[in-house]
Design a protein that fits this description.
Helix content of chain B: 25-40%
Low-confidence stretches of chain A: 1-37
Number of helices of chain A: 4
Low-confidence stretches of chain B: 1-33
Shape of chain A: elongated
Number of domains of chain B: 1
Number of strands of chain A: 45
Helix content of chain A: under 10%
Radius of gyration of chain B: 16 Å
Number of helices of chain B: 4
Strand content of chain B: 25-35%
Structural class of chain B: alpha+beta
Distance between the termini of chain B: 16 Å
Largest interface: A-B, 76 and 51 residues
Mean pLDDT of chain B: 77
Strand content of chain A: 35-45%
Shape of chain B: globular
Largest sheet of chain A: 7 strands, mixed
Oligomer: heterodimer
């Protein structure tokens, strides 16, 4: 049962006067008559109008003659105590499953026909929580979707921003979500508080602390969160462990733009790939091959999935930086018109939020495009007449399954947006807060540029050069794992070990007790071991809380123990998302100049 | 690892090509699926991959190693009876998995899709079924993996050999 707030007796210390005369009239002929003659009147003063579970309130009666007896209904819902002829204390029950209106009634001892009721609303405990949690940094003009979860009430929340002016604006307002837009021009860092207030109980609130940043310091920073805020994504609690950011895309050289949330930040791939189904308000120009066919892109990922769709151009904006007229992939919603040469390699067409686990992938890895490695380009025809199955030319009606890959020039290839920035374009820095075990959410930031501003210097970070496959060496448990890499897009640490594998959470480790381990990473060109500690916990246990989205101790098997040779499949330590918690990790792009020399390298 | 040039590979492959032909003649079986198929299917794979091939004889099996022009290496493990009991790959691009997994591809595909439905996160493939194991991982332009049929491992050969 739900009550509208208007039904409740409002205000504190409002004297509710009940004209006993009315009751006398209504009860005329009942046989009772005022003792001593004249009317009896009762005035009741409740001290509160609403109560939370277990709370008490005192009701006071002002009686013109004699005293009163007290009763309450519904029977058995809460208790009366401290009864006197002029006051009573009502205590709400400890457990309140639904909002309940309690009537406390004073009955005249002089004339039982004279009664005065007062109503108090007893509310279930209401808690409000927000996703993402703060503090968050947001760039001028950028948007952030915020969701409220209300436990104990279904009417949701109202949203307020403070300060009252200059804090930006709210749009898409519902009782459970809102879109916050930072002011278009921020001249100095501006703290903003977004408050969600329970509609049913104004005492239940949750706040999100934001800092809007503008020109000057902080223009090269994008916020990261593991929270899932967009609709249609998989439920958390199953090891998502994904660092999400928001990306704004615009029709080139226009202000016709759209911001897309929950884009996965992936240091293990290159290029921006957005689900076409999420690009709802823009028509981006698509690249053609010069004879009318559209350039399409095909990428396979480590998890057996592939992404297929046209190459489009957009001004890509995030973290205060812009990659102008940058080729990106729009992941086609269609499952047909995919050449076999593309779909062959992968078996899951990850073209929905549910399948992709994100609205897009922002590849900010070591290479400038999705075809380049160690200075070579596998798609531009420079590799001995053979091109990789990455670019295809398709008519508007779609590709045929028999179509084969074509040559795509470097300038038409899906580009790592960072290298296409006007400044701060030599790499990225990922900073995540320390985390112990699992958590509802973890936040961090992605900073652009290495050694280009005061906030992205290498400091004392160890720098790791890489081999021709963009890998380094991890020494772990007597193994020399020569094809190891750091990858924010992997949700765990994956490596060959004798740790017990899970039977329920297949593909993860399930040790009986948490394993505190260490490994050494080193540059294959100049091997100096650098110790890294990590822990692996039982994935079955980690996945028991369905509200968790961040895991610092998640890991799983990869390859087989002690069989690494020749960079085979048992030679990899995949340092995924758990590696990033509590660290500052630098990814320098191949061929770009940094204070520590040319990329590619990692540093942390 | 530096990617070997095609010319170097061509020089080294000639002596091995002869042995492949001999093996094929000895069995003279129809071309069929790859993993689980007979050794002559290695040639089908080689042709489709436009790959160079190198054969190494281990104690109780042979390794047919093919290298595609785009740098991906596929190793097929062949039992004394001429059956392909395992495959492994590494390189900048995934190999043609339907080609090298043959009749096991559908089983792999179904399992991978089920894994996607269960777990949201991105992670390496790890399919462990009684009659098929497929594992793989890597990053963009750096893939690796292997597949084998546990029942078909020659006596005394550990699955660790397939890598």
């Amino acid at each position: 049962m739900r009550f509208d707030k208007g039904m409740f007796v409002r205000g504190i210390s409002v004297v509710v006067l009940i004209a006993a005369v009315a009751f006398l009239a209504a009860c005329g002929g009942s046989g009772s008559s005022p003792i001593g003659g004249g009317n009896v009147t009762i005035g009741l003063t409740p001290s509160v109008s609403t109560l939370s579970p277990g709370q008490a309130t005192t009701v006071t009666a002002v009686v013109s003659r004699g005293g009163v007896n007290w009763s309450s209904s519904p029977a058995g819902f809460g208790a009366l105590s401290g009864q006197s002829s002029t006051s009573v204390t009502y205590t709400a029950p400890a457990a309140v499953p639904t909002p309940t209106l309690v009537t406390i009634t004073a009955t005249s001892t002089t004339n039982s026909a004279v009664v005065a009721p007062v109503q108090v609303a007893v509310q279930p405990a209401i808690t409000v929580s927000l996703s993402p949690v703060g503090p968050q940094t947001i760039n001028q003009g950028q948007q952030q979707s915020v969701n409220a979860t209300v436990v104990g009430d279904a009417t949701g929340v109202t949203w307020t921003l403070s300060p009252a002016s200059g804090a930006g604006s709210l749009s898409n307002v519902t009782t459970t979500s809102v879109t916050y837009t930072a002011p278009n021009l921020v001249t100095s860092n501006t703290p903003v508080t977004l408050t969600a207030t329970s509609k049913a109980n104004a005492g239940s609130t949750a706040v999100l602390e934001l800092t809007a940043v503008g020109s000057g310091a902080g223009t090269n920073v994008a916020a990261l969160t593991t929270a899932v805020t967009a609709a249609g994504l998989p439920t958390i609690g199953t090891g998502t462990n994904a660092f999400f950011t928001s990306v704004t895309i615009c029709v080139p050289a226009t202000t016709n733009c759209q911001t897309i949330d929950n884009v996965l930040v992936d240091t293990g791939s290159e290029g921006l790939r957005l689900l076409q189904s999420q690009v709802t308000s823009l028509v981006l120009p698509q690249l053609t091959d010069g004879v009318g066919d559209y350039l399409n892109n095909c990428i396979t990922f480590l998890d057996g999935s592939y992404l297929w769709g046209p190459v489009a151009l957009a001004d890509v904006k995030f973290g205060g930086e812009t990659a102008g007229n940058a080729p990106l992939q729009l992941i086609s919603s269609s499952n047909t018109g995919v050449p076999t040469a593309c779909s062959n390699g992968g078996t899951v067409n990850s073209n929905t939020p549910q399948l992709l686990g994100a609205n897009g992938i922002l590849g900010v890895g070591l290479e400038p495009t999705d075809c380049t490695l160690a200075g070579g380009n596998f798609c531009d025809g420079s590799q001995g007449g053979s091109v990789a199955n990455i670019y295809f030319a398709c008519p508007t009606s779609g590709c045929a399954t028999t179509d084969t890959a074509i040559i795509a020039s470097a300038g038409n290839q899906v580009v790592n947006p960072v290298v296409a920035f006007g400044a701060d374009n030599n790499g990225t820095v990922l900073k995540l807060g320390a985390l112990s075990g699992a958590a509802t959410v973890a936040d961090g930031s992605m900073i652009f540029g290495i050694g280009t501003q005061s906030n992205n210097g290498l400091g004392t970070a160890a720098v790791f050069g890489l081999d021709g496959n963009d890998n380094f060496i991890t020494l772990f448990s007597g193994q020399t794992l020569t094809a190891s890499f750091i990858d924010s897009g992997s949700n765990g640490l994956f490596f060959p070990s004798t740790i017990t594998a899970c039977t329920v959470s297949a593909g993860f480790y399930c040790p009986a007790t948490i394993q505190n381990l260490s490994a050494n990473n080193e540059d294959p060109n100049a091997p100096v071991p650098v110790l890294t500690n990590f822990s692996i916990d039982n994935a079955d246990s980690l996945f028991t809380n369905p509200n968790d989205s961040a895991y610092s101790t998640l890991g799983g098997p990869l390859g087989t123990v002690n069989t690494c040779s020749g960079n085979n499949g048992s030679c990899t330590f995949d340092w995924g998302a758990p590696f990033f918690y509590g660290k500052t990790v630098f990814t320098a792009i191949d061929g770009q100049t940094t204070p520590a020399g040319l990329g590619p390298f990692w540093a942390y | 690892m530096k990617i070997r040039t095609q010319r170097e590979t061509c020089r080294t492959m000639l002596p091995f090509l002869a042995s492949v032909v001999l093996v094929t003649l000895a069995f003279s079986l129809p071309a069929s699926a790859e993993l689980g198929g007979f050794v002559d299917t290695v040639q089908v794979d080689q042709a489709k991959m436009k790959a160079t091939v190198k054969v190494t004889q281990a104690k109780s099996y042979a390794i047919h190693e093919m290298k595609a022009p785009t740098g991906t290496v596929v190793r097929e493990y062949v039992s004394p009876e001429g059956r392909v009991f395992g495959v492994a790959w590494q390189g900048p691009f995934l190999p043609d998995l339907p080609l090298i997994l043959g009749s096991y591809f559908q089983q792999y595909s179904t399992a991978v899709q089920a894994e996607h439905r269960t777990y949201a996160g991105h992670r390496p493939v790890d399919i462990q079924q009684p009659r098929l194991v497929v594992q793989g991982g890597g990053h963009m332009l750096g893939h690796f993996g292997r597949a084998f049929v546990p029942d078909m491992l020659p006596e005394g050969v550990s699955s660790d050999a397939i890598r």
